[in-house]
């Protein structure tokens, strides 16, 4: 089946700021719209364009919902029905939790857009208190960007980890999911050559997610200019996947354009005039990154 192109929409808001919404056509007519929740982002993940902009403001509930409405209205005729919504565009959705909870409700409400709650996924870098609240108040799906298996690496590439570390994050999920029936969290793990893709990382990952009903999504890193990370080679990702699968994890990895496009979804926006600081590279990784450069 022919893979269609990703469609990127730019929306100018009333105050002149611009946000991006991406439509990702998938096989079998399962089109996904990737929506933004903030203008910019305060989380400063080291791989992410949006993070480099810093946070400009939260989007309102209607600005969030409108992205899905407009994608449906403008694009359904070209690509077919839109079945999935992911909050993986600009911003940390749980940093704007009030409006995101309201928007998610409207997306799944019969009187609203009537998406299935399992097909509306809110993605977070790991804001623990808000994540708890989200799980208690919403039935929509949750994706957590893990991206590393040690606090040392995670605190570097995702500075939010300095506040809410892996133990706290995973312990909270383990606890909260006990009372959610048939609910699985999706862990996103972007494969970065030499940074988080070793056999030891795979083994640590198995231990970390122990007791948490989950799926693990391995994502190929989409290199962009200004990034010092390199993608992990396919064979190595397959090896990593197989280690997880053999241990009984549900692990997803598709080597396809769709995969790249999903990764691209987290890297919207161009670095603006306000630039968040690039963090000091931990010394043991300097050689890896220099070799990759
Ligand atoms: C965004 O919304 C959250 C609550 O959902 C609030 O705590 C925060 O201060 C808001 N941020 C900005 C920049 O307005
Ligand atoms: C971390 O995870 C998200 C996917 O949920 C992704 O957008 C981001 O690029 C990842 N990157 C790194 C380097 O950790
Ligand atoms: C935290 C950690 O140990 N990360 C590893 C990620 O993968 C590279 C090699 O692929 C290792 O060298 C790192 O130690
Ligand atoms: S990856 Fe997500 S949470 Fe991290 S800086 Fe980018 S937009 Fe923010």
UniProtKB/TrEMBL annotation:
PROSITE patterns: RADICAL_SAM
Cofactor requirements of the protein: [4Fe-4S] cluster
Organism classification: Eukaryota, Viridiplantae, Streptophyta, Embryophyta, Tracheophyta
Residues of the Radical SAM core domain: 27-260
Matches recorded under InterPro entries: Aldolase_TIM (IPR013785), Methyltransferase_A (IPR040072), RNA_MTrfase_RlmN (IPR027492), rRNA_lsu_MTrfase_RlmN/Cfr (IPR004383), rSAM (IPR007197), rSAM_sf (IPR058240)
Chief location category: cytoplasm
GO molecular function annotation: 4 iron, 4 sulfur cluster binding; metal ion binding; methyltransferase activity
NCBIfam families: rRNA_mod_RlmN
Entry annotated with the keyword Protease: no
Biological processes annotated in GO: methylation; rRNA processing
Superkingdom of source: Eukaryota
Protein name per its UniProtKB record: Radical SAM core domain-containing protein
Keywords: 4Fe-4S, Cytoplasm, Iron, Iron-sulfur, Metal-binding, Methyltransferase, rRNA processing, S-adenosyl-L-methionine, Transferase
Subcellular location, record wording: Cytoplasm
Native organism: Solanum stoloniferum
GO cellular component terms, semicolon-separated: cytoplasm
């Amino acid at each position: 089946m022919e893979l269609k192109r990703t469609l990127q929409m730019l929306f100018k808001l009333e105050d002149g700021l611009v946000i991006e919404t991406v439509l990702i056509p998938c096989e079998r007519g399962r089109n996904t719209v990737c929506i933004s929740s903030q203008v910019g982002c305060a989380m400063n993940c080291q791989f992410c364009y949006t993070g480099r902009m810093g946070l400009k403001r939260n989007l309102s509930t209607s600005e969030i919902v409108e992205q899905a409405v407009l994608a449906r209205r403008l694009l359904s005729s070209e690509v077919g029905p839109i079945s999935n919504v992911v909050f993986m565009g600009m911003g940390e959705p749980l940093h704007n939790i009030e409006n995101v909870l309201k928007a998610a409700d409207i997306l799944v409400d019969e009187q609203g857009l009537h998406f299935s709650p399992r097909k509306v996924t809110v993605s977070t870098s790991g804001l623990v208190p808000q994540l708890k609240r989200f799980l208690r108040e919403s039935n929509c799906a949750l994706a957590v960007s893990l991206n590393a298996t040690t606090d040392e690496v995670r605190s570097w590439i995702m500075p939010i980890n300095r506040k809410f570390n892996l133990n706290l994050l995973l312990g909270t999920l383990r606890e909260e999911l006990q009372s959610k029936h048939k609910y699985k969290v999706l862990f996103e793990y972007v494969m970065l050559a030499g940074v988080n893709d070793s056999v030891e990382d795979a083994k640590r990952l198995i231990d970390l997610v122990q007791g948490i009903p989950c799926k693990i999504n391995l994502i190929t890193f989409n290199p962009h200019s200004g990034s010092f990370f390199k993608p992990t080679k396919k064979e190595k990702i397959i090896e990593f996947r197989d280690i997880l699968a053999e241990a009984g994890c549900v692990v997803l990895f598709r080597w396809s354009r769709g995969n790249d496009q999903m990764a691209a979804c987290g890297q919207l926006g161009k670095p603006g005039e306000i630039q968040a600081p690039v963090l000091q590279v931990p010394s043991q990784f300097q050689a890896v990154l220099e070799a990759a450069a």
